[in-house]
User: Fold DUF2599 domain-containing protein from Dietzia cinnamea.
Amino acid sequence: MRHRPPLRATAFAALLAIALTGGCAADPDDPAGPATATDATPTSPGNSSSSPTPGTSSPATSPSAPGPTSSARRSPPTPPAPPFIAAATWADSDYGATLEVAPTDSGRRAWAEGDAEAAWQEVLRLAPDADTPGMWEQFDCHWTWARLLEPDKPTWNVEPWRPVVSPERMLAEGCNPGGPEV
Assistant:
């Protein structure tokens, strides 16, 4: 059996690539354009053209330097905590049964390792009969991609009648393999 990278790892890699390439698109002529090492170098009355030498840091960039730099730091935000799922309700569609999964605000913002699995366990507590082949994969696709592409989508629908497919096909078919979005 061939090992496939988890969908979340692929999503993280894609986001990282977007973030890194987006940072390169700044207009260098823009006054608020990219910062350079000399932008952060303070000047002193006797040394107006000083710049830090490689391997050293200037007082303005030192983590222990007093002043506005150290006082402006904030503690990291508290990561979102469960519950991640507000409801999981079975409904009928033109194609068959569908499980409408409604994420909480916390579920829309959770990206830590293990959050998708924890959210799926919440789904299974709300709808134990959802534990069928392909349902986790659809949920994981929605957890990873729908939150990026449609962050305010009220529900994610997962269906037991959809075929079990590769992660690549799952993504290519918008998390809805084998039929239209329900």
Q: What stands out?
A: Helices lie at 7-23, 68-71, 105-109, 115-126, 135-149, 167-172. The radius of gyration is 24 Å.
